[in-house]
Structure formats: C-alpha cells, structure tokens
Amino acid sequence: MDIRVDDLQGPEIAQLLQEHLDSMQLLSPPESVHALDLVKLRQPDITFWCAWQGTELLGCGALKELAPGHGEIKSMRTATAHLRKGVAAKMLQHIIEEAQRRKYQRLSLETGTVQAFVPAHKLYAGLGFETCGPFGGYAEDPHSLFMTKAL
C-alpha cells in the first residue's frame, strides 16, 4: 500500500468522496453531516492522502489543523472493495504519525453514532482515542461522537 498526498483532482478520488458524502447523508440528518466536499478539502490547513495499490484507490484520509498543536482527522473512507483489509488502520496510523511529526499535542475527530459507525469507533478506540466533548466549531449533537487522543 502506497499512501501519498493527493491534490484532489483525479476522478477516482472524486468518486470515492462522493460515495462518502452520499453515505453520510443517508446515515445522519443534514445538520449533522460534517463530511467535507472536494472544494472544502482543498484548503491550505488540510493535508489529504490517498492509499493506492498500483492504480487502484484503496482509501483516503485527511488532517486539518484546528490550532497550533491540535489537529482533526477528516474524510476517513475505505473503498467498498477494500473494507476490512486494514486500509483504514494504516491510514489512521499514517495520520497519527504525521500529527506527531508536526508536534501536535492532540488529535481529535467527529464521527457518527449509528450502528454503521461502530467499526470506526472500535478502530479509533483501539489506537488510543477516547470519547470527549465537542471541539473546534462543533456543538453537542446526538448524531455525533467526538473523540480525541493526546499525542
């Protein structure tokens, strides 16, 4: 698996991110969908990575700087054909290592609360993330689970 920074220009990533947005909109009410589209992911405070195997896109993830020393994980998604193959775990580990390299003291995330998100909850908890309250610009929301990890 080759994880590399992506410029969000390729059709493969556009399709994967659209699937991500569509899925989030099916699972949560509109006011609780915090997934970013291509335009919002192209901001200077966000670094976006794709995981590839040859010419096949396996998944993606992003790191947004919220403040000096605090990052947020965004846009974690595994291509359907590669679910349960360790893609998300490798991407998450890559993002954690990058946050440590940047000398962040904390890494946080927001994810959904319905049953479909349970595998993500387990992945995050397994790598040391703990439930926390809202951070950044988020507010309490029964459809959001907030997690954080001290680095």
Strand content range: 25-35%
User: With helices defined by DSSP (H or I, 4 residues minimum), what is the helix count?
Assistant: 4
Radius of gyration, CA atoms, in whole angstroms: 14 Å
CATH architecture: 3-Layer(aba) Sandwich
In total, the number of domains comes to 1
Give the topology string: H per helix, E per strand: EHHEEEHEHEE
CATH third-level topology: Aminopeptidase
Biggest sheet strand line-up: 1-2-3-4-5-7-6
Helix content: 25-40%
Assign an overall shape.
Answer: globular
Low-confidence parts: none
Q: Work out the oligomeric state of the chains in this entry.
A: single chain
Q: Structural class from helices and strands?
A: alpha+beta
What is the CATH domain class? Answer: Alpha Beta
Distance between the termini: 25 Å
Mean pLDDT: 95
Biggest β-sheet, characterized? 7 strands, mixed
Please count the beta strands (DSSP E, at least 2 residues each).
Answer: 7
CATH superfamily: Gcn5-related N-acetyltransferase (GNAT)
